[in-house]
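Notebook entry, structure prediction.
Reason for the run: the old model in the group folder had no record of what sequence produced it. Starting over properly, with the input documented here first.
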Amino acid sequence: MENIVVKLDNETLRKLQLTQLEMLVEVDRICRKCGISYNIIAGTMLGAVRHQGYIPWDDDADVAMLRPEYTRFREACKTDLDTTRFYFQDHVSTKGYRWGYGKLRRKNTLFLREHQEHMPYEQGVFIDIFPMDGVPDNYMLRCLHNFVCFAIRKTLWSAVGRVADESAVKRLVYSLLYRIPERSLFSWYEKLIHTSNRKTTKLVRKLMFPTPNRVFGYYRKWYEQSEEYIFENKSFKGIKNYDEYLSFKFGEYMKLPPENMRKVHPVSQIKLIEGEGVYDQSS
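New structure, fully documented this time:
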């Protein structure tokens, strides 16, 4: 059956953003309580600077932590997370979870990305929690490191790619990659994490996320120095040198992109708190 992509109306999008805001507040609460360093990043950081809140059409939120801080946060969630409202997922805690970073999700919600409906775990509204790992200082080693990241990422993605890719050949390749046992796959990933963090390098990156720049990473110093930013009338930690970071990532970041470049993620089903803004494939 062909997937039906839901177009979120403005009211539902806003409710989605405010649900994610709840989770940002929870991350901030845990981190301040436990002395864990974090930063809002990417479009969330851009939204804080340019809009003092969400980019109007944005449908996600991103937080980053250097790997030691991420490990501490993951452990803190076991004791300090408000489990009446939220749950934390990553490949360590959630069977069948094939992303190399964590997600904090809202209980009693549903948010299905297109072609991910079959994934075997609970899929509530979420924000991404990205660990940042070292990138080799030597450029040739960095290129090799990037290839290893690419290979593991694509193998993880095979669970989706084998049903989602438009190319029959690529679907076949993904189907073959999907046969690699998860235990072996995550064993390779854990070794990559260990290797990436043996030294304190100049650059860091999300290992299981593409880096659309020529150096395959971002400056570590950006994630080591934080400042308070107002986002949706709440205070969160963000990258202190926001101008350097946002210019590096987005270019002329204060200039709004044309409407046809204001992309959102394809969604097949969403259910928010209080039963409002509910859509599914049968709508």
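Summary: Residues 139-164 form the longest helix (26 residues).
The old model has been moved to the deprecated folder.
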